[in-house]
Write a structure and sequence with these properties.
The chain contains eleven helices and eleven strands. It has 289 residues and is α/β, with parallel strands linked by helices. The chain folds into two domains: 190 residues, Type I PLP-dependent aspartate aminotransferase-like (Major domain) (Aspartate Aminotransferase, domain 2, 3-Layer(aba) Sandwich); 93 residues, Aspartate Aminotransferase, domain 1 (Alpha-Beta Complex). The protein binds pyridoxal-5'-phosphate (PLP). Its cofactor is pyridoxal 5'-phosphate. Pfam families: Aminotran_1_2.
Length: 289
């Protein structure tokens, strides 16, 4: 796992690695494990960042992307490529996040679980690569569920600040949050192969193109959605109306309101259905017009 962090994420300097039981449990329990009292999370975000703060009774503050506007906190989440928007942080935005972690002495946790599916032609950039060997207050979160379609294995990992990961390990081992050895072996095998990841990235990209074309013809505006697993789009109506329209065609989408108030007029469509199903969905949309 260390080799993968060095080779693929570009981590350098002192860092530690810890396997987790998928990344969702880590996201949900990290504020509790680290006793963080104030937690920042993106305004449009994967709901578990908020849930994790609620479990611990931490003050959760939704924030914009630009870290120079963030209030002081003990922990801040970023997620790039994003679920649900498919937005990718620019290098400048990541650097601003690193400056925040250093100047505020606050932990920044970068959820990079979709990093293996970057925008077409772009190289994925981990926050650890930009840290240039100084990983203090920085942790990157990764998941085998996304990278290698191993969701059922419940396998993830965190990489970064050795001291903080040491503290996390200490609490987790007393809470029984250990990853079984056979799963760790499977993780090592999957992390050692990039071919299947590149093939899957191609698949998502092809599906995105097919479905985006049909959605645009149906009057949707696609926002961000350059990377990761999702199309984030709007018809400037309530997200429930868009979901209902697609449901009428037998297509399942998620209302953007699930990810925060700012998503109230968007929907999220996942590229996880098969190639045939995606093509069928695009055909149904086009036929309905
Ligand atoms: C942004 C983000 N982080 C973490 C997870 C958790 O994934 P897993 O627990 O399967 O590793 C998900 C799953 O959808 C996600 O979208």
């Amino acid at each position: 796992m260390r080799n993968w962090a060095t080779k693929i994420l570009g981590a350098t300097g002192e860092f530690d690695v810890l396997p987790t039981i998928g990344s969702k449990e880590l996201v949900a329990w990290l504020p509790t494990i680290l006793e963080a009292k104030t937690v920042l999370y993106p305004k449009v975000a994967y709901p578990t960042y908020l849930v994790g703060s609620m479990i611990h009774g931490a003050k959760a503050i939704p924030v914009d992307i630009d870290a120079s506007t963030w209030p002081k906190s003990e922990m801040a989440w970023i997620n790039s490529p994003s679920n649900p928007t498919g937005r990718v942080h620019s290098v400048e935005e990541l650097q601003s996040v690193i400056s925040y972690a250093r100047s505020q002495n606050s932990l920044v946790v970068s959820d990079e679980c979709y990093i293996s599916f970057p925008a077409k032609g772009a190289a994925p950039v981990s926050i650890l690569k930009l840290a240039n060997g100084d990983n203090k207050n920085l942790i990157a979160v990764h998941s085998m569920s996304k990278r290698s379609n191993l969701a059922g294995y419940r396998a993830g990992l965190i990489v970064g600040d050795a001291e903080i990961i040491g503290q996390i390990r200490e609490v987790r081992k007393h809470a029984g949050m250990m990853v079984p050895l056979p799963i760790q072996r499977a993780m090592t095998a999957a992390l050692g192969d990039e071919t299947h990841v590149a093939e899957q990235a191609e698949r998502y990209s092809a599906r995105r193109e097919i479905l985006s074309g049909a959605l645009i013809k149906a009057g949707f505006q696609i926002d961000f959605s350059t990377a990761g697993l999702y199309i984030w789009c709007t018809r400037n109506e309530s997200s429930w109306d868009s979901v209902a329209w697609l449901a009428g065609l037998g297509i399942l989408a998620t209302p953007g309101i699930f990810y925060g108030e700012a998503g109230a007029q968007h929907i999220r469509i996942a590229m996880t259905a098969s190639d045939t199903q995606i093509k069928d969905a695009a055909d149904r949309i086009l036929k309905s017009l």
